[in-house]
Amino acid sequence: MKLARPSSQQPSREGSHVPQPDRQSALLLVDLQNDFFPGGALGVPQADTIIPIVNAYIRFFHANGLPIFATRDWHPPHHCSFQERNGPWPPHCVQGSLGAQFHPQLIMPPGTIVISKGTDPDRDAYSGFQGTSLAEHLEDLQIRRLYVLGLATDVCVKHTVLDARKLGFDVVVLQDATKGVNIHPDDSARALQEMADAGAMLATAKDLGIDPSSES
What we know:
The chain is α/β, with parallel strands linked by helices and about 220 residues long. It is about 20% helix and about 15% strand. The chain has a six-stranded parallel β-sheet with strand order 3-2-1-4-5-6, sandwiched between helices. The longest helix has 14 residues, at about 155-165. It is globular, with a radius of gyration of 16 Å.
């Protein structure tokens, strides 16, 4: 696989010289599945509050004809990450289950490319690149910059962003459309800093000229 060329993109504070999406950009939705929302097996606190802004980003990218990717945990029963196998998590996002489905209020335009991860019963995958075809899809579409949002900031979003940077992609983290587990109160803040230190930019809808309140 031919990887993207290493980027000179430097760590950035929110809103500082945020690049606008172009024809080599894609939106990446991370694990916006029922089990990661309140009431799910691994519900992230207040995760449902990001759905309107997530949909605003989706509308923006779709209206501009830019690719949209969506990762999902797609675990077989008895996955190694489950507590029954001495993993850290309760059963979640089991293939074909209601918990594995995308949030019902999430807009998924035709052509959204779904990337399944964690499908090997004996291997876990926090990153959307781990054991998947995501990098190959991005290469085929000549994507160089990813705009990333989703769940959870301090777990799968972080690992996906760090892997994207290692592969040489420019990354913009849409932090107003992410939520963290925050087992420790500052976990999300630390994760955002780690992503910025790796060269990702931090942005909000305002930086892209998006007004979520105007979206229907």
